[in-house]
What does this fold into?
Amino acid sequence: MEAMVFLLSLIDCCALIFLSVYFIITLSDLECDYINARSCCSKLNKWVIPELVGHTIVTVLMLVSLHWFIFLLNLPVATWNIYRFIMVPSGNMGVFDPTEIHNRGQLKSHMKEAMIKLGFYLLCFFMYLYSMILALIND
Amino acid sequence: TPPSHPYPHHSAEGPAQSQMQVPSGYGLHHQNYMAPSGHYSQGPGKMTSLPLDTQCDNYYSGPYAAPTQNVVTPSTANQPGAQMYGRGPPAPHMMGSTPGSLHGAASSASHLHTSASQPYSSFVNHYNSPSMYSVTSSVASQGFPSTCAHYAMSTVSNAVYPNVSYPSLPAGDPYGQMFTSQNAPTVRPVKDSFSGQNTAVSHPSPLPPPPSQQHHQHQSLSGYNTLSWSAPGLPTQDSLIRNQMGSLPIVNNNTTNTVADSLSCPVMQNVQPPKSSSVTSTVLSGASTRMPPATKHAAEPVVSASQPLERIQHQGMQYGDYVNNQASSTPTPLSSTSDDEEEEEDEEAGVDSSSTTSSASPLPNSYDALEGGSYPDMHSSSASSPAPDRALEPNPAPAQALSPAPTPTAPQPAKVAKPFGYGYPTLQPGYQNVAAPLNSGAHPSGLSYSGFQQYPQHYPGVNQLSSSLGGLSLQSSPQPESLRPVNLTQERNILPTTPVWAPVPNLNLELNKLNCSPDSFRCTLTNIPQTQALLNKAKLPLGLLLHPFRDLTQLPVITSNTIVRCRSCRTYINPFVSFIDQRRWKCNLCYRVNDVPEEFMYNPLTRSYGEPHKRPEVQNSTVEFIASSDYMLRPPQPAVYLFVLDVSHNAVEAGYLTILCQSLLENLDKLPGDSRTRIGFMTFDSTIHFYNLQEGLSQPQMLIVSDIDGKPQTVLPSQETHSALGPALQAAFKLMSPTGGRVSVFQTQLPSLGSGLLQSREDPNQRSSIKVVQHLGPATDFYKKLALDCSGQQTAVDLFLLSSQYSDLASLACMSKFSAGCIFYYPSFHSTHSPSQAEKLQKDLRRYLTRKIGFEAVMRIRCTKGLSMHTFHGNFFVRSTDLLSLANINPDAGFAVQLSIEESLTDTSLVCFQTALLYTSSKGERRIRVHTLCLPVVSSLTDVYAGVDVQAAICLLANMAVDRSVSSSLSDARDALVNAVVDSLSAYGSTISNVQHSALIAPSSLKLFPLYVLALLKQKAFRTGTSTRLDDRVYAMCQIKTQPLVHLMKMIHPNLYRIDRLTDEGAIHVNDRVVPQPSLQKLSAEKLTREGAFLMDCGSVFYIWIGKGCDNNFIENVLGYPNFAAIPQKMTHLPELDTLSSERTRSFITWLRDGRPLSPVLHVVKDESPAKTEFFQHFIEDRTEAAFSYYEFLLHVQQQICK
It folds into this structure.
């Protein structure tokens, strides 16, 4: 059972890793002028909710399966994701707004955020992997 | 007239009459361009025209003497001229002309040197006394320093430095060109080295003899000056210049001679490499010290000296034969001058052939030539060429070229002079004439002199150096005026009595003269700090304020096949690049070395080859290119205008439709566009109505579409109160998307139907709340999405909001903000109830409909490596990091950019910014307007403070505060504004050593900073505590974001004048009108006296306040009423009375109105009338219930600092 939980998290985490890599690639495309802000933002905004949902699922899963440490580790990131989503001003076109992404270093901060998340997901990935193997061995 | 003129329509381009000049300049170039071709093709095998050779010679000689640049050239040219003069009138024909040219030279010299006394005197000397060698040489040497400087610098590997010296040449351009026309290069050098900035201004209208000429010069000079810094008094110039043109030919003769002489002379110089080089080097060291980091250069000269040497020799040889060739080919031009209408290709061919010929002749030969072998040639050629003919012919040609205007009789020359101060046109005839006649007399003498000319050169050179150094030291003296500490709390009258001008960057004079006009391009810090750390220490915002599409009275327009740009960063070539040699230039933004394309080697204006640095691109920091098809993604779009009109009950009631229709009818012919122009109308209430305006229909057909299901219905519009703006806009977008263009939306209420409907968000009780102001941001992203869609299809949406009630401008504005449109707001508009609003709409519409417009535009801002832009302000969509997508660009749009310093700028002393605006003109031409600004880099905090442009800083801060209040909150923004003052003043306080902590000290450059910030805090956009309607506030914010600096400053801090006692003291003359210049009053009620009348200029509105005890004479003479009581409550016009005071007042007001895009409405406010509050809210130095007075604010700031 425990192994199943971690396997699920592992898959989810993989998806999140791919997603954040995608974010990074798209943002750096924008940085290098390969795509314009409009298409970049519409691409990224599509994936904001899946990412949020994906990560919330893992977090909830950990809570449900009573893995406190991992849950607490995930909690800040999940909170941030939700906060960010909720705090989008009504006039904006999503978390990534094409009219603002070039302003006030937003692009850079988005980039930084994506990088940090990637690191975090990688960490989680190995943690889940380890936990899963441990769980399998214990079984 | 000239069928040759390739762009006859050009003149129609701009709405403003001034625009006309642009074309002339343009046409001019073009023509010039072609003319040479004529020479080439027609020439008997040898292509170079006489004028050309002379030019070339000069040019070439330059390089020898001073390796890098041609700067020197002119100097050599100069000598002959001087000699001639000294010699007295050698040839009979010279008699007449000589004095002219000389005087010209002298006078010009005097202009140039007014700032530096020494050169001036020397020149005068030159003029008077026959012993001019030393004098001339001094002049010549002047040429050197700069070159040398350049050289030294470049060796230092300081990329930007070279520019410094280099541009000196171009700097002369307007003047220089002018001069050249008369005196040939003679004057150039002087200018080069000295390039007094005040030249034009200070021109003492001196030397007597050939008045016409002097005038001419004077005019052109002043023209130039004015053009760049203020409005030129063009009309008057016209006639004058015309006259002068007449006299020109003669003068030119003279010039020619000089040039011819110089031909030989320079050559001579070059031949003696070692000596000259040494000279150069010495000069070099001196010159280099001119540059800020003097220490570096001290060592350099030696190094550079050797290099120059080699080059000198080398080049000397090469060019030698060139000279030869030209000499022999002289006769050609004569015949060719007549046909200017050849194609450009010809010209290129000509160039080619010329070069081949030159190469053909063996090197030794060239040496011969150098040593004087060429003379005979020259001589004969000149002799053979029938000079008089020439003199006559060339003139008409350029003239034609110049005048785009249809009037054939029009004094084209005059135009020429006007447009640019560019003397190109004049120049040409000069050259042409030149070649022939003089040589005969002048030559020999020139010959003999040339030998020793070099020696004297360096002595004066040294002198001049010191003088220039003196100038420098002045600039960098420990406490320039801008750093004078001002104790703010003790200075009662902080506001100067004259308008505040933009500070001049601390660059050398040539560079400053070349620099972009502060009206188009300004930086908050005219001294750029070297590192981000230094910038952070200064606590001042760093950014640019742009007004790129400003209506210009003079603008060089360049047509050429290749637009020269840096290959790596795509920067357009500009006056601040450095030419490493003739064939290569170094980009001043990324420091890449680029090749100079072949086409660029030919200068269409002087018709000379091998002078890439004299091309207009390199002589002007604001130029416009006609772009080739490389710059088009699709064929240039036609001008398409769509009007989307609200016809709901509310709108009909307000009555704007009649005004709009009237304005449209009046201005329909003036709508910018060509034969492809299209115009369309849509109206909407709860349904959308389309109109079929096809040709052949006697009456427009109306098609009604209900917005919901999109099927045409036959419902007549009735008393419909709903407004389906969203669907109407979507329909408009679909209509426009195939072409792009401009959509003008007139809306009178909150959109209440279909997509994009809005709810009222304003709580009237919160209007004067101190705490929170909500709803500054849009309620929906519908309008933003729509705007981005429009922007993608090159459609801009302009919004006219004429509403009496809250209509959520914050949301609606998005449709214009992101599609690069503009926003007009008329609160509580009613055509009959509020006539002033109606009048304003009418005037705005007139301007709106007729002003210039650019379609499918993009603007890119580039800056020197190390700097980066991070935030943009204005109406546009940022498509990629530095590319602003502007579906439309209008001349009233301003932009702001925030900068940060990413890499330290220690290895450069200058930074440059370049904006390139690529647009399609209403005539379907693809054009690129390029502005380049150059600023020095400093390493000390005091220097940073010395260079603060307080107005620019305030405007940038205002933009940032708008962003902050939308993204965060209004109170945050207000705090940030106060902190900006506190931080910068306390940071400055910590830099001055003898600190009195009790006093609030600011550098003189920042002394208005607190006042302006206080003004901002009391501005509609940011004020709290005073009842402000949400839409008014949002509109003020929109204006802050989009107004160019000049207009924004008036909005922030209005100007107050006392007008009941206008005198002619200090008055200026504009178009034969005397405009009195009353002094500025501070914005405090203490300045108001009951006995006076005051005019407040708030940018978009004028108030005239009449005191109760105002002199009845004034009331009667100006307002046309017998006494105070008789003045009506609502008065928006001053009667045209035939009294002196009325005339003065009106001319002053007209003067204020001129040059303002949206003509302000005038309100006469009686003391104690209800409208008084409107007027008194602008007294920002006074205390109000909710806000500090200026003094209190200072105390508050002081407290904060001490904390």
Observations:
- The mean pLDDT of chain A is 88.
- Residues 106-138 of chain A form the longest helix (33 residues).
- The CA atoms of residues 77 and 120 of chain A lie 9 Å apart.
